[in-house]
Design brief:
Chain lengths: 154, 854
């Protein structure tokens, strides 16, 4: 269950909207922040807090790609492999991350440090290849640069 | 006025409707898939596209409103091409397993593909694989066939209100959840089954047992379970009911059904049905013949009447039997047996409340249409959960809440948890105090109406008593809500009637109804609780609700029946049982009822019935009461006979015969045979003759005929003459208030999936809800250290029982609930009771119970 502080936070969100449904997406973000990912328990918790049908909460959570439906590592790497990034060697970078940190696309490294997701275009074609680590944006990637960047995420 | 042209046909409309609707009115069919008349327009499947002149692209007819001067074409080469394209897309993932699929023959997708083509697609990719789930014993879900029209999702959330179905994922990975039994809040209404256009949701009750075109006949009839009386269609093959579907375009339920109505029909084919009359010989019930059994009943009853007088005979009528059955029953009791001791188990709730309200407020006060609830500004629900007791009425309450009505629940109603605007939780068994305070406060704002002197006086007297201020959370808001509403519905469950001082709550509810000019609805568990009162199966009234004590009425009936009706009012149900115990009642005739199981303190009732000299039971199953009988007579059940039923809104409806039964007789026929043998001839050859007589003699049913009733709109007050309120003074008798200090109190659970003892013979309902559990609130469970599934033993003064615990968060107080539906004893066998002096209903509250983990 959510702790008191979180419940208060959700109450504040609810107060902004005319109905309970509108508070669902922000509440799912909070649940993801609190539990790391949206497990069945986490979804039930949101449903109960907002007094919404559990089915509706699950349906909504499953629709959006930014909600995680399985456990992820401490840091989430989202790397683009669309046309520009691919031409500039993004696929080699995927292999490099796999070799160096032991994490495959859609997987998590054994130490739980990184998860890797191959994502669609993030609009950085001019400075390809590009990636997101959690919510931080990085461009003009190379193997060395990735190593440098990821050193900052323990 | 709107004039438009569809396919060169001129159409004039009174008010704007969608193009689809306009075309339908003109007899033009536009193909649809995601559209369903019970649901809001969705515009998802794009199959209903039409050409509208001066609009650049094809338009969806299900969402576009008609406008003056529109020129519409519903079929053209361009349209056909688009439709074929859409179907080709849909078939990418559809398995095309029609030869194996039960839906084939009534599948909307199949029909569309047949018409527009695209059966052989151009796609080479692999089809989506979703494994079929076998977890659910009632609903078969095959999501490979699903075309994601979302009709089931919308039905479940927008109409049923259970919100148990959702789409998981998106795009072509979308699939419907759940796949497993009763996930989320599934209410097993099966309405998803009605709306599914393909074979994705099917019923396991009949899967792979027939093809839709093999149905011999369809019979429009009504449901046999509760007091709503939903219309449904029984589909028959080889003289067996193959399935039950809701009717479209008729009936008060608008094509919706609940779990009992849809899946509970199999009891009629149960192998446990009584086939021949049984007669007790040497202490054992043995198979007998009709002539022997009927003669024995007639002889025994005649002998008791001769030796002890008619008043030594008592009769229990049945709210499961038709108006005709009940009418003949009371005529038989009054004329052949010479006794007014006629009552029914309805006395423990519905009949008691109904009489109380009609005495005060006049006949027909509870005759309000269920649909009216939807348009209320405020709905007050008290004394039970309407969504479990009368599910379809419950849906109207949910709809009202969706339309913005203030929904106030006094006490708990699990099915309304997600819909209520306000919940007021009185202290344990103190609802009457809250209601009285509410009435006092409201009467200080709304002056008495001066229409009914007894009510005005009663309300004034109550206000003068000036009770202490009530301190309940939400009380002020409750008062404001009711005062601010211009149209209020009050929905009363029997929990507040079954109280030692039940008349206090009843008066307060009557007062609120009177002052607020509210619509009053009484929840009714059985299909004909109202009808049996109107048919005269009450100790103090003749058919049509005419008081026996008024000479004019009595004389009229005596003339019509050519005989004498006994003068004195008869005994009420619980008085009869007491009479049997005291040997004042010597013989009892029970029709379609199981008092041993359905009355509180079952052991006491059993002893009382054992003390009788002669007991006749007429039923479709050998019940606990039947086992004590001297003669048991097999009757006909639902769909085996024709008859009329009066629902809780007092609509009279026709239940039609659909199948032949090889054994058993109509209840009225058995009674008239016995009556004839007792020297009181009744000349009926078919059910219609009984109705004809009823329409002739009852001032309520004047000139009613089957064809008229069969239309489904036979509404109060028919062609009848209702009586005004009778009493000049509010009857009041209040026992001293008790303190409730025990840890736990036992109460009656009213489950959604069961109804009386009938549903235990329905295999489907038994699968959904297989055994009784002790329902306990989370707080109480915590106190006892109990978890879901723990087994406990619980004791009352009357006995003990063992059951598994199930924790129910909607229970907020220290009551624990146990059902009265399953074989081997229900909660009634454990309940002790006292009787309300006015309503004569048993007070079931405050039955202390000890719970011990085993």
């Amino acid at each position: 269950m959510f702790n008191e502080t979180v419940l208060k936070e959700i109450d504040e969100i609810r107060a902004k909207y005319p109905d309970r449904k509108s508070a669902l997406l922000p509440s799912l973000y909070i649940a993801q922040r609190e539990f790391g990912w949206l497990s069945n328990d986490a979804l039930q918790c949101v449903a109960k807090t907002l007094n919404l049908p559990e089915a509706e909460v699950r349906g909504t959570a499953s629709f959006y790609a930014m909600f995680k439906n399985r456990p992820v590592g401490r840091h989430l790497i989202q790397l683009c492999t669309n046309v520009s990034c691919m031409i500039f060697g993004a696929e080699k970078l995927v292999d490099f991350i796999g070799r160096k940190y032991g994490v495959q696309p859609n997987g998590t490294s054994q130490d739980g440090r990184f998860s890797l997701v191959i994502m669609e275009c993030i609009g950085a074609c001019g400075t390809a290849p590009a990636m997101l680590v959690n919510t931080d944006f990085y461009e003009n990637l190379s193997e060395n640069r990735i190593e440098e960047i990821l050193e900052g995420y323990k | 006025m709107i004039t438009l042209s569809i396919n060169e046909k001129e159409i004039t409309l009174e008010k704007p409707v969608t193009l689809l609707e306009a075309a339908k009115q003109a007899g033009i069919k536009i193909p649809t898939l995601c559209y369903h008349e019970a649901l809001k327009p969705f515009g998802g499947c794009r199959l209903c596209v039409v050409e509208v002149e001066r609009m650049p692209k094809l338009q969806t007819a299900c969402t576009l409103m008609s406008a003056d001067g529109m020129v519409v074409k519903t079929e053209s080469d361009a349209i056909s091409k688009v439709r074929r394209g859409i179907l080709e897309f849909l078939l990418i993932n559809h398995p095309l397993d029609c030869p194996y699929c039960d839906k084939a023959g009534e599948c909307e997708l199949q029909d569309l593909v047949k018409k527009y083509g695209a059966g052989a697609g151009r796609y080479k990719e692999e089809k989506r694989k979703v494994p079929e789930s076998h977890k659910d014993q009632i609903l078969a879900r095959n999501m490979e066939r699903c075309v994601v029209c979302t009709r089931c999702v919308r039905m479940c959330s927008d109409v049923q209100g259970a919100s148990a179905i959702t789409i998981l994922g998106r795009g072509d990975h979308s699939r419907m959840e759940p796949f497993s039994a009763a996930s989320f809040n599934c209410e097993y209404c099966g309405n998803c089954l009605t709306v599914c256009p393909v074979g994705a949701i099917l019923s396991r009750l009949y899967i792979h047992s027939f093809r839709p075109w093999q149905i011999d006949k369809e019979v429009e009839t009504i449901c046999s379970y509760c007091g709503v009386g939903c219309s449904l269609v029984a589909q028959v093959r080889d003289d067996t009911i193959k399935r039950v579907i809701p009717g479209t375009g008729f009936g008060l339920n608008h094509g919706l059904l609940c779990s009992r109505g849809r899946f509970g029909y199999e009891y009629i084919n149960s192998s446990e049905r009584l086939r021949t009359p049984l007669v007790r010989k040497n202490g054992r019930l043995e198979e007998s013949t009709w002539s022997e059994a009927l003669s024995l009943v007639a002889d025994k009853l005649s002998a008791v009447k001769k030796a002890n007088g008619g008043a030594a005979i008592a009769g229990i009528a049945s709210p499961r039997c038709s108006n005709e059955d009940n009418y003949v029953f009371q005529k038989f009791m009054r004329m052949a047996c010479g006794s007014n001791n006629i009552d029914s188990v309805s006395r423990t709730g519905f009949a008691a409340a109904q009489k109380y309200f009609e005495d005060l407020l006049g006949q027909g006060i509870t005759a309000n249409l269920i649909d009216g609830i939807k348009n209320s500004e405020a709905v007050l629900v008290l004394g039970g959960d309407p969504t479990a007791i009368n599910p379809i009425l419950g849906l109207s309450i949910r709809e009202a809440a969706r339309r913005g009505a203030k929904l106030v629940v006094l006490g708990s109603a699990k099915g309304l948890e997600k819909f209520k605007t306000l919940q007021v939780l009185p202290d344990l068994f103190k609802e009457a105090e809250v209601l009285e305070a509410l009435l006092t406060e409201i009467s200080s704002v709304k002056s008495v109406r001066g229409e009914i002197p007894a009510m005005d006086k009663g309300i004034r007297m109550l206000s003068e008593k000036a009770r202490g201020k009530i301190n309940v959370t939400g009380f002020d808001e409750l008062r404001k809500t009711l005062l601010g509403s211009k149209s209020t519905s009050v929905v009363l469950g029997m929990d507040l009637v079954q109280r030692t001082n039940g008349n206090r709550s009843l008066f307060a509810v009557a007062g609120l109804t009177y002052l607020l000019e509210a619509r009053l609805y009484l929840l009714s568990e059985k299909p004909n609780e109202q009808g049996l009162i109107d048919a005269g199966c009450v100790p103090d009234m003749l058919p049509g609700g005419r008081p026996l004590g008024i000479y004019d009425f009595k004389r009229k009936y005596e003339a019509a029946w050519s005989g004498t009706i006994p003068q004195e009012d008869g005994l009420t149900l619980l008085e009869m049982i007491e009479g049997a115990k005291n040997k004042n009642i010597k013989a009892m005739y029970v029709m379609g009822e199981n008092p041993v199981f359905n009355l509180p303190d079952g052991h006491y009732v059993k002893d009382a019935l054992k003390a009788l000299d002669f007991l006749v039971v007429q039923d479709i199953f050998l019940t606990e009461t039947g086992e004590l009988a001297d003669v048991v007579l097999p009757a006909l059940g639902w769909t085996e006979k024709t008859g009329t039923y009066t629902n809780l809104e007092r609509r009279i409806q026709l239940q039609r015969k659909a199948v032949e039964s090889s054994s058993g007789m109509e209840d009225w026929r058995i009674l008239s045979e016995v009556s004839g043998k007792m020297g009181c001839r009744m000349d009926y050859t078919e059910t219609k003759d009984v109705m004809d007589e009823l329409a002739r003699v009852s001032p309520l049913y004047r000139e009613l005929t089957y064809p008229e009733i069969g239309k489904g709109n036979c509404l109060w007050p028919y062609n009848g003459e209702p009586l005004r309120g009778e009493v000049s003074e509010v009857p009041a008798a209040v026992d001293a208030a008790r303190e409730y200090k025990e840890d736990f109190y036992l109460a009656v659970e009213k489950p959604l999936f069961h109804s009386g003892t009938l549903s235990r013979r329905s295999p489907a309902l038994m699968k959904i809800y297989p055994e009784a559990t002790l329902k306990i609130g989370a707080k109480s469970a915590g106190k006892l250290g109990l978890n879901d599934g723990d087994r406990v033993q619980f004791f009352t003064q009357a006995g003990s029982k063992e059951a598994a615990v199930s924790v129910d968060e909607s229970i907020k107080d220290n009551r624990v609930y146990y059902s009265n539906n399953f074989q081997g004893g229900g909660v009634y066998s454990l309940l002790t009771f006292s009787v309300d002096k006015i309503t004569k209903a048993p007070g079931l509250e405050g039955c202390e119970v000890k719970i011990k983990k085993v």
